[in-house]
Amino acid sequence: MEALADYCGRALGPEPRGLVAEQCPAPPAGGPRLLTRVREAIRTRHLSPRTEEAYVFWIRRYVLFHGKRHPAELGGAEVTRFLSHLAGAARVSASTQNQALSALLFLYRRVLHIDLPWLEGLVRAKRPARLPVVLSRDEVAAVLAHLDGVRWLVAALLYGAGLRLLQCLQLRVKDVDLVRSEIVVRAGKGDRDRRTMRPVALRIPLTAQLARVRRLHEADLAGGGADGPPARARAEIPQCPSRAGLAMGLSRHAPSSPPRHGGTAAASLSRVSDPARGQTRRRAGRTCQARALPHLPHSFATHLLASVTATSGRRWSTRTSSIAAAAAS
Length: 329
Fold this sequence. Notes:
The protein is mainly alpha-helical. It contains twelve helices and three strands, in the order H-H-H-H-H-H-H-H-E-E-E-H-H-H-H. The radius of gyration is 25 Å and the shape is extended.
């Protein structure tokens, strides 16, 4: 998100001198500032912190683009001009323009309670057609062969369970069920929980990782360095066990509480992903692309679908052969 902010900041031009983070048009007398109202509306609806960061960024840029005029004084024409500027002069991608549009629609509908008219004449950024990158089984094996330790376990979970990188780094102890061979993904796409398979080959590595996390947690408790479960869990369930929200330790300096309750697992994303990618580039050579890790979940889904299709095809072929033999006899 910081990279997006830096890129869009360069594309939209420098900010005026003396601009502070919360500088926006003055609100009505006695009312909260505009960005404060936006944050309150986002947190009331339990949207993710990244959504809050992105929406606040685009609303601030929208206000600056129109000379710090209050958005209540602007309308559909000004929104269209800003979004068209993003697609034309700033040359942002289609997903970035859609994110800015979502932020402005949220501002007008949920904060200012103003219905915007149809945005006529809006120049939409072109969405290029991209083919997904699917690594072969040999390429996946080459990636895993040149990783070790926690990095190997992260990559194995991405491919073996179909987890996204951030979902893997945010796993907690209670999300891994070794008995039922399941992994629970909390607040996944669309803020929905889901269950996925736990690869059989990862039973022993996950058991060892859980034991390691347990030892570290007990040492933290003995030294007074861990605070147990999140404050929200302690308030709602006083008898909540101290390991309920314990992180799996897949990210460096992983917090005891999940990110939604004050943890910082997302901040350690680059510390885990970037060294792993660099290690893959240095050792695996041409067997995989430089950004191999993000493609592992898609490779998992493709290989799983191919296996199911092949199995179904063999079953159908066996069934038709037996029917034909019976008919011939």
